[in-house]
Amino acid sequence: MHGLVTSLATVDSSWIQFDWSNLFQNFWPATFDGMTFGAIYALVALGYTLVYGVLNLINFAHSEVFISGAYAVVFTLSALGFGPNPPHLSLIAIIGDLLLACIAAMIVSAIVALIVERVAYKPLRDRGAPRLAYLISAIGASFAIQYIFFNWRSSNAEPAVIMFNPKPIFDVFGTIIDSQQLTIVIAAIVMMVATDQFIRRTRLGRGIRAVAQDPDTATLMGVNKERIIMSTFVIGGILAGAGALFYVMKVPSGVIYNGGFILGIKAFTAAVLGGIGNIRGALLGGLLLGMIGNYGQYLLGDAQWTDVVSFIVLVLVLMVRPEGILGSNLAKVRA
Amino acid sequence: MALLELNSISVHYGRIQALHEMSIHVDEGEIVSLIGANGAGKTTTMRAIAGLLGLSAGSIQFDGGDVSKTKAHLRVIRGMSLAPEGRGIFPAMTVLENLDMGAFARKDKSSMDADFARVFDLFPRLKERSKQAGGTLSGGEQQMLAIGRALMAHPKLLLLDEPSMGLAPQFIRQIFRIVKEVNEQGTTVLLVEQNANQALKLAHRAYVLETGHITREGSGAEVAADPAVRAAYLGA
Ligand SMILES: Nc1ncnc2c1ncn2[C@@H]1O[C@H](COP(=O)(O)OP(=O)(O)OP(=O)(O)O)[C@@H](O)[C@H]1O
Ligand SMILES: [Mg+2]
């Protein structure tokens, strides 16, 4: 009896330890690498946020929209001769191939997003179904897509596709920033700014904002609500496809049928953290969550903690500030 | 010639019937007022005309065609425009953006400037406030914006659902004067009002709606002179 208690206590004391010096020593690498993951979360988070803004609905099948894009990236690059070793290609050729993979992922993710909307949500909308029905339908769609991939690819992870070896570019506070981190963060930010401007400045963007603010009145203005809803899913899918390219760039091996789940929840957390429905909030939430997860990993000494920390963040935000940091939603976006 | 014709339309909310085989028509160039008490079905009528509510029976003819099955956003393109009850201003959009939304469906962007000028001419206040968020306008200003926005679609038929609701008397007079002016410029108007007195004075013709049934119709003056109408709606 006594021995058991002691051994439990031993397990207990080694189970969780705060290694502050590890965190401080690795603070800048943790920050920059966290931003890289965060940029990917942010791109996927936009899909949750845009759909929520227009339909007040959390599209839990968005994680499968993302993983479909990741499969598209892996298949395209494998077909182009990429594999476990970085290719011997010129820079231009690599960029061309990555663009091709990106476009393939965007198309596949957009199509999957559109199918989810038409099959899982549109029939419910036509019937004026209660809120809970959408949630259940979302979960059903999510499992359906996962098991389509399962039946096709079995439970094995896809082989690695290495796109290029990261090269050091410059150093900040003694920490090397490499070409991969730079590519991901810059490309993601450019895409998010473009999305933000698109929503603010274009005719379709105005239609999206109008439906988000008042769907009936938007219809009275001649806005085709159904088309706006479809466009929103397509835009979210395109961004998830881009996110999928960067995700595979960062984590080249292990794309698997249920691999969207964790990333999806993190992206959703990022969206909630920044303020769901808020485009700029998704960027902020994504970057913050990426960094927080990495700090948790160094503080607690194991990569597994990244996920735990992320979910604790989700629960805390929902408890303390459910409207998120930037708080507002798509309906309040001003031009 | 009838621009709008409702032929025995019925509308249900679930199993509750809100409109009972209702027939009205609005001729080109007219102002027609539809008056009735709270819950009579006035808003239901307007939403059915605009296409936000489906019919359970009957048909709607507009501008020479059957629009009963036409989607709401396409009816706008056909030439009708509703300033809804409660105004429906987009709160986060500026006055200018709200007006822009009114012209969302238009293809003839070149003649839009003329409509902006017309709206600012009718409502100089909107021009002063053009950069202000719609949600921060006063009730009267929001009503002006709702009407101005409906005019930006350059409609053949302007549908107004209780434009005087919640407004001070001088605002109400101004709104009614503007409705008259818009009509004189060539726009046909269907006006829903509880403010029966002024709505009947303004109207060429009028209908009285009671719990989903049309109970009286005639020229504005005839309906206003009807003893039952006077007792029920004009406080006389
Ligand atoms: N969404 C709805 N669901 C169920 N019943 C409704 C709905 N909207 C309206 N009704 C009912 O239909 C009837 C007509 O309502 P409507 O809004 O058309 O009246 P109204 O004449 O516009 O009244 P008011 O002058 O108060 O605006 C009312 O009895 C109302 O309770
Ligand atoms: Mg009403």
Largest interface: A-B, 22 and 28 residues
Bound ligands:
adenosine-5'-triphosphate, magnesium ion
Give, in spatial order, the strands making up the sheet with the most strands of chain B.
Answer: 6-7-8-3-9-10
Helix content of chain B: 25-40%
Q: Bin the strand percentage of chain A.
A: under 5%
The number of domains of chain A is: 1
Look at the helices and sheets of chain A and give the structural class. Answer: mainly alpha
Fourth-level CATH superfamily of chain B: P-loop containing nucleotide triphosphate hydrolases
CATH architecture of chain A: Orthogonal Bundle
Rg result of chain B:
17 Å
Multimeric organization: heterodimer
Element-level helix/strand string of chain A = HHHHHHEEHHHHHHH
Average pLDDT of chain B, to the nearest integer? Answer: 94
CATH top level label of chain A: Mainly Alpha
Question: What is the N-to-C succession of helices and strands of chain B?
Answer: EEEHEEHEHHHHEHEHEEHH
What is the C-level CATH assignment of chain B? Alpha Beta
Number of helices of chain B: 10
Mass-distribution shape of chain B: globular
Mean pLDDT of chain A, to the nearest integer, reads 90
Overall structural domain count of chain B: 1
Summarize the structure.
The complex is a heterodimer of chains A (about 325) and B (about 240). Chain A is an all-alpha fold. Chain A is built from 13 helices and two strands.
